[in-house]
Amino acid sequence: MEFLYLGGNFISYIPSELANLSYLSCLVLCDNRIQSVPPQLAQLHSLRSLSLHNNLLTYLPREILSLVRLQELSLRGNPLVVRFVRDLTYMPPSLLELAGRTIKSRGIPYSPWELPENLLRYLDLASKCPNPKCG
């Protein structure tokens, strides 16, 4: 199953078993009474679109950030609140950083004449990083 539409059904919770739908690319849960998102939804690695608008969500689990293929996330009409001050100052990674991370983490081979100079500089600096999390 790639598409699941459960909008407008007075659903009050999302069953964690939805995480077993590994090929799901679009999940529509709008116009319900959902109060929380189970962290297990982060296991939906194929998910590209998640519609949660017009529910009762006050927060999202941090695990939602691991949905790397997610292109659309609709949250309007929810009473979302920022739970941590640091979330207010969070700066998402730049496109340069995302490109560098992807090249580095996937071991994509490249030649210096194939990439922009600023990306080459980023990759050069990342290769000298002593922190094991630098990848």
Automatic annotation (TrEMBL):
UniProt xrefs under Gene3D superfamilies: Ribonuclease Inhibitor
Signal peptide: none
Protein keywords: Leucine-rich repeat, Repeat
Pfam families, sorted: LRR_8
InterPro entries for the chain: Leu-rich_rpt, Leu-rich_rpt_typical-subtyp, LRR_dom_sf, LRR_domain-containing
Domain of life: Eukaryota
GO cellular component: cytoplasm
SUPFAM superfamilies: L domain-like (SSF52058)
Protein name: Leucine-rich repeat protein SHOC-2
Lineage: Eukaryota, Metazoa, Chordata, Craniata, Vertebrata
